[in-house]
Specification:
81 residues, elongated, single chain, four-stranded antiparallel beta sheet, mainly beta
């Protein structure tokens, strides 16, 4: 059975492409509560006290465009005929 992402959930895996210190440690995808799927980057950081924390960045939509098209009711029709 394959993994099926649900709204409000996602997954990230260790990045094999990390070549610079500023590159993300983990990369993946997250589905927003709206149903739109976006890329996610997670980077391990340290505070001045030495405590570890995770920086999370939500990126562009998967597929390059919004996953949810506008509903017909939401579209305004300004054509006069």
């Amino acid at each position: 059975m394959s993994y099926e992402m649900k709204p409000g959930q996602g997954s990230a895996f260790k990045s094999d492409d990390k070549k610079e210190e500023w590159h993300a440690d983990f990369r993946g995808k997250v589905m927003l509560p709206s149903g739109e799927t976006r890329y996610i980057d997670i980077t391990k950081k340290k505070t001045k006290a030495g405590d570890t924390w995770l920086a999370v960045k939500i990126g562009n939509p998967v597929g390059g465009a919004s996953a949810k098209p506008a509903l017909k009711e939401d579209m305004k029709d300004d054509i006069p005929w």
